[in-house]
Amino acid sequence: MPIPKNISFVTFDVYGTLIDWETGIYDAFAKEAARDGVEIDRAVLLPMFHEISREIEGGSYELYAEVLRRTAIEIAKRLEWPLEPSRSGFLPDSVQRWTPFKETSIQLGKLAKKYKLGLLSNIDDKLLGQTRRHIPIDFDLVVTAQQVRSYKPDLAHFTECARRIGSKKGWVHIASSHHHDVEPCLKQRVPVIWVNRNKETLDPSQKKPTAEVPNLREAAKLLEVS
Fold first, then answer.
1. Is 154 marked active-site?
2. Angstrom distance (rounded) from CA 7 to CA 70
């Protein structure tokens, strides 16, 4: 399934692809835990965050702000950090301070001159609105978990995107999560560029994306944007 020759629509996952959310998450935890004299190890925190949030998203749908609160509470329990549940809002409150990767705005600006652009994100509309203040681009399409009441890797985001575009022809998706984005794209036969920032290696059971790049700049090059 190659990258199509006549691309018309390029969509992106947001967090991890356009926004450096791992730094934002770590900074939020480190600051809140420091109030209680607790130190947070980034290398321990982030895998735990991904594991727990994925488990919560796999249950019945609830707003992403609530997913973040529940994730914070569970992480604190595992770290034996006595965080009062009433303080768990520190994590969704931090989303507004999660910043884009350095190349994000430049590359989006270049791509916007050539293609229609969209966002497919596992977040709610309010929190995404806070993030979009950091990205000076008018997107042609936005699909959130709140709109489809479902979290990727379920297929609802991709089905809804195809419905709004009117076709899968000429559509390419760009994302950093193999689990949340690459796998469902392959199931839906949507060409997908994997932005593998963390240099993850796939095991034999995991299918390869259409293309793999280390950052957004290289993804733009593949789409013939210099």
1. no
2. 40
